[in-house]
Amino acid sequence: MDTAVRSSPLALTVLALLHHEPLHPYGVQRLIRQWGKDQVVNVGQRASLYRTIERLHADGLIAVRETGRDQAYPERTVYELTDAGRRVAREWLRRMLAEPKQEFPQFPAALSHLAMLSPAEAAEVLAERAERLGRARADRAAALGAHADLPRVFHLEDEHLDAVAGAEERWLRSVVEDLRTGRLTWTAPEPAEPSDGPAPA
C-alpha cells in the first residue's frame, strides 16, 4: 500500500502503541512517557502528536473506534489500528531497522566549526558535554534498574542509547585530554571587523 503519511519515529510509535490496544490521544501521550519512549521520540509539542494522529487517520492507517465523554474530561476519541495500518507499521519498522539513514544532528554540525573557538574554550565546552552525558547515563541506568523485571526486548533502545552515549563520552574525554596537553591545537581566528558597506567594485 502506498501511504501519503511519511514515516517518522512518532508515527511509528503511535501505530505501535495502537497495535497493543485502542487508545485516545492523551492515552498515547501518557504511554509514550510512561514507557520511556520520549527518550527516542520527540513529543515535546503535544500539537505534533495530534497532527500525526490526524494524518494517520486521514490516510486510513487508524480508525475511530468510539467517542466517549466523561464528566471529568472533555470528549475523547478512541482510535484503533486498521489492517492497512498494521501492514504499514511493519513495513516502516523493517525499513527503519535495516536501512541506516543520513541524519543531521546538531553536534556534528557544531564540531565542524570548532576552530571558531580557542582550544581552551573547546576543551571547556566539550568537557561539560562529557559530564552531562555521564550524568544522563547514570540516570538511565537508575531508570533501567527500576524496571529490571521487564524482558530485554522492551528496553533495547535504552541499551543502544547507553552504548552510543558511552562511546561519545569516551571520545570526548580523549579529545579534551588532547586539547589540554596541546596534542590538538590551532589558532582561533580573530573576529572580523564589521563592514560599513559593500566592498568597492
Describe the overall structure.
The protein has 201 residues and is mainly α. It has two domains: 9-98, Winged helix-like DNA-binding domain superfamily/Winged helix DNA-binding domain (Arc Repressor Mutant, subunit A); 106-181. The chain is 55% helix and 9% strand. It is built from seven helices and two strands, in the order H-H-H-E-E-H-H-H-H. It has helices at residues 9-20, 25-34, 46-58, 83-98, 106-111, 119-146, 156-181; strands spanning 62-70, 73-81. It has a two-stranded antiparallel sheet with strand order 1-2. A hairpin with a 2-residue loop joins strand 1 (62-70) and strand 2 (73-81). Helix 1 crosses helix 4 (83-98) and helix 6 (119-146) packs antiparallel against helix 7 (156-181). It is elongated. The N and C termini lie far apart (58 Å). The model has no long low-confidence stretch (mean pLDDT 89).
